[in-house]
Amino acid sequence: MDLKLEIGIDDIKFGMKKSEVEQILGQADRVRIEKDDENKMMLDYNALNLRLSFYPNEDDKLGYIECSNKDLSFNGQKIIDNDVSFVKKEVLGNIITEWETEEYRSFTVHFNEKYWITLQVDFEKVTEIKLGVPFKNDEEYKWAI
Hey, how many other C-beta atoms are within 10 angstroms of the C-beta on 129? Predict the structure, then answer.
């Protein structure tokens, strides 16, 4: 699985509709509606450790990706289960140099707003990547398609 900053993962791109995603990945293992978040629809693909969220207020376009797949890589470098310092410096460091860090009780998150990427970290290892469709400006999303 190849991480593509500002675009998505592999052939899954921000701005796709559910039907387009299903043509590529097949039927999701779980489809659910997040009632606390404007009825956002989420598709879970268990074998891929992948969750995709579609934004109802944006014509149901794919707007958020969560992935904990151990095969996820960027420029040939694995991300999941790698040391966060290595991922930030060696894997993503040529593109992303500034990170906001927040500590929680049992994990830490490293976030970059420009690329709308979050590294979720436990015991200094990246356990999950979260990608949101980035913004062109304060009000418009930068859809990949």
Answer: 22
